[in-house]
Design a protein that fits this description.
Keywords: Acyltransferase, Transferase
CATH class: Alpha Beta
Radius of gyration: 16 Å
Family: Belongs to the acetyltransferase family. RimJ subfamily.
Number of helices: 5
Helix content: 25-40%
CATH architecture: 3-Layer(aba) Sandwich
InterPro entries: Acyl_CoA_acyltransferase (IPR016181), GNAT_dom (IPR000182), N-acetyltransferase (IPR051531)
Protein name: N-acetyltransferase domain-containing protein
Shape: globular
Number of domains: 1
Strand order of the largest sheet: 1-2-3-4-5-6-8-7
Number of strands: 8
Length: 188
């Protein structure tokens, strides 16, 4: 698939470029990322270059995962990254520390979910390692229904699949043929 851009009044979600390497490397020094993301640790500029120039390109080419840079509309600065994994319908995201708490991530997740539902997919799944309250707060605020703890779908450092919180957001006006597990309170 060719990369494409999603836009809202607040944000533009577009392709990561070589110009994003420096900021991505800086953001990925955040100690919280060691425990919440699958990124190499410690994180180097070569990791950002490989991610942007190889992994993201291959995922788009293979229709496995669509990954976008998050930017304020009309600006070029990288704020964070958001991805949708087509092979298991999961959304994942991270925001650089200086840009947290400003509503950017909630808007980015909402925009990607709107696009996903426009393609006819009936649901989006969210996951985050147990304890990632910031990511969970975004999912909860957008109406994702918490479904429990399962192993992480992605392999983490050391080849493990640690316990992750999972939730599902069903497309508006959809009547799925399965029962979405409900009644479980969010774990925070």
């Amino acid at each position: 698939m060719q990369t494409f851009t999603l836009t809202s009044e607040l944000l533009t979600l577009d392709a990561l470029t070589g110009d994003d390497v420096e900021l991505m490397t800086t953001y990925c020094q955040d100690p919280i990322f060691e425990h919440t993301l699958t990124i190499p640790w410690p994180y180097a500029a070569s990791d950002a270059e490989f991610f942007i120039n190889n992994l993201v390109v291959q995922w788009w080419d293979d229709d496995d995962e669509y990954t976008w840079a998050i930017r304020e509309t009309g600006k070029t600065e990288l704020l964070g990254v958001i991805s949708f994994r087509l092979y298991n319908d999961t959304i994942g995201y991270w925001m650089g520390e200086p840009h947290r708490g400003k509503g950017f991530m909630k808007e980015a997740v909402a925009e990607v979910c709107r696009w996903i539902f426009s393609t006819g997919r009936p649901e989006v799944r969210w996951e985050a390692l147990v304890g990632n309250k910031a990511s969970a707060a975004i999912a909860k605020s957008l109406g994702f229904v918490y479904t429990g703890i399962e192993p992480a779908s992605s392999e983490y450092r050391g080849g493990t699949h640690p316990p992750s919180w999972w939730a599902t957001l069903t497309a508006p006006d959809e009547n799925p043929s399965y029962a979405v597990e409900s009644g479980q309170p969010w774990p925070f």
